[in-house]
């Protein structure tokens, strides 16, 4: 198997990944997964598509991650991994789609409006 690349986005985070056959090592911005995402919950989110297909220790993944916060980054990486797995084996698409790993979450932060403290919150109204 040659190198397969894929892209995942969530909020303002972008994950570009390169998948090769290997031992299950995930490297994010030249750091190990456990170092980059110390939270076990975020590590679990990243590995969800691999666990669903039972291929956690079959592929090595190199990741370029930038933008957003840690939650958005982990979810962008999950989408990229799912897309790469579909490129490797198209038969896996149905299983990943059923789990919801191939759906791009399109929710973005709404912009702040002038004359208001936040996007929708207004200053307190005073009649007198």
Secondary structure layout plus pairing:
Blueprint: E1 4-10, E2 13-21, E3 26-28, E4 31-32, H1 33-36, H2 40-53, E5 59-66, H3 70-88, H4 93-99
Parallel strand pairs: 3-5
Antiparallel strand pairs: 1-2, 2-5, 3-4
Helix pairs in contact: 2-3
Describe what this molecule looks like in 3D:
There is one protein chain. The chain is built from four helices and five strands; from the N terminus they run ββββααβαα. It is an alpha+beta fold and 128 residues long. The chain has one domain (4-99): Ribosomal Protein S5, domain 2 (2-Layer Sandwich), CATH 3.30.230. The chain has a five-stranded mixed sheet with strand order 1-2-5-3-4.
Task: Give me some keywords for this one.
5-stranded mixed β-sheet; single chain; 34% helix; Ribosomal Protein S5, domain 2; alpha+beta; 128 residues
Give the gist of this structure:
It contains 4 helices and 5 strands. It has 128 residues and is of the alpha+beta class.
CATH architecture label name = 2-Layer Sandwich
Order of helices and strands: EEEEHHEHH
Computed structural class: alpha+beta
Report the biggest beta sheet as strand number plus sense, adding barrel if it closes: 5 strands, mixed
Count the E strands: 5
Which CATH C-level class is it? Alpha Beta
Mean pLDDT score: 94
SS strand fraction: 15-25%
Low-confidence stretches: none
The domain tally reads 1
Radius of gyration: 18 Å
| N→C terminal distance | 73 Å
Helical residue percent band: 25-40%
The third-level CATH topology is: Ribosomal Protein S5, domain 2
Instruction: For the largest sheet, list the strands in their spatial order.
Output: 1-2-5-3-4
The number of helical elements comes to 4
- The backbone outline, from C-alpha atoms, is elongated
């Amino acid at each position: 198997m040659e190198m397969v690349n894929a892209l995942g986005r969530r909020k303002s985070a972008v994950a570009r990944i390169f998948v090769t056959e290997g031992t299950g090592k995930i490297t994010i911005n030249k750091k190990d997964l456990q170092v980059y995402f110390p939270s076990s919950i975020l590590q679990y989110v990243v590995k969800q598509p691999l666990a669903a297909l039972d291929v956690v220790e079959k592929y090595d993944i190199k990741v370029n991650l930038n933008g957003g916060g840690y939650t958005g980054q982990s979810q962008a990486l999950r989408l990229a991994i799912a897309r790469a797995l579909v490129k490797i084996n198209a038969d896996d698409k149905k299983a990943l789609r059923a789990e919801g790993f191939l759906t791009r979450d399109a929710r973005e932060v709404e912009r702040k409006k002038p004359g208001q403290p936040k996007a929708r919150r207004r200053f307190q109204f005073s009649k007198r």
